[in-house]
């Protein structure tokens, strides 16, 4: 079994996890904006997310000879360690619920703000729990100021969303658009029939999935751009209450805050639930069971949502999902990115402390980059929105540096 033992290696894994975990939400957001049903996307994502955990377990978890106190992955599958397995599977369940919630929150609140709020809640609650579970191996005088920075970022993220929502409302109020209860029509861009006339392009933002319009593309940040987006995306959000998006986002954040402490308990057995002589779950075995429960919950809920959709989405079926190949390769890629990102986070956390590993929750730095440059978020917004956005990102940069500086070393 491959074991990360030095702080430098742990930090390198955290940085890789930060990149992967900040990129996969942008991929799923791209598909939703192109009109692909989130149930179809999440089913594809779940398959490769589980496959990533299996690949990590069969490679890193099988390197070298098995030892009694640190058995290899396959050796440990037959051991009596069900209490730890249940903790790992519990972590997978709450992570799956959180991920499922965010795929709807992205549409309502935006990629950047969703990631900021959920990540900050995760750090404020989860990092505090991990600090005490890890026997305080992280430097408290450095760790908790970092947690405070994330708490400030939650407030700034909410303010950014409120300010941006007000900006969009002002843009739409002076637009020449009309809403008939189902679709928007932009008079200076063409009729609603024109907006629904599909074409295939190769542009990354416009998509290559047959879900774009033949009318000219509106400039990002304008009211016409918002309306074009509304007519092509799968989740209709214009005119909806902003409170709904924030409620979904805060629920996801609470779910995310619990999965890392549960995984910590699974691998280190701080509550002494294992029988005497039974070795702790190694990180790869715990991640395997963690991913299985995550997969099962995702499959059950998304198949249910195919037939009983929420938030005004159209009804689908499992047969329709199997036939929907538009953008499937992107959804599968997102699953791999998330799977390897989570795996690297746990590998780094086992070496340097799970509290310090929560620095990967600064993934909004990556997600915001994609949100601004790929999706045109915050284009033509007010000065107040820009000031809040820059302040939020600056607070995250400080927070991730402080959390990584608090890294300790777990005695094996």
UniProtKB/TrEMBL annotation:
Annotated GO MF terms: allantoin:proton symporter activity; ATP binding; uracil:monoatomic cation symporter activity
Location, primary (coarse class): membrane
Keywords: ATP-binding, Membrane, Nucleotide-binding, Transmembrane, Transmembrane helix, Transport
Subcellular location field: Membrane
Superkingdom of this protein's organism: Eukaryota
Transmembrane residue ranges: 12-31, 43-61, 81-98, 105-130, 142-161, 243-266, 286-307, 330-348, 354-374, 386-406
Coiled-coil segments: none
Keyword Heme: no
Pfam families, sorted: Ureide_permease
GO cellular component, one term: membrane
Membrane protein topology class: Multi-pass membrane protein
UniProt xrefs under InterPro entries: UPS_plant (IPR030189), Ureide_permease (IPR009834)
Family to which this protein belongs: Belongs to the plant ureide permease (TC 2.A.7.19) family.
Protein name: Ureide permease 1-like protein
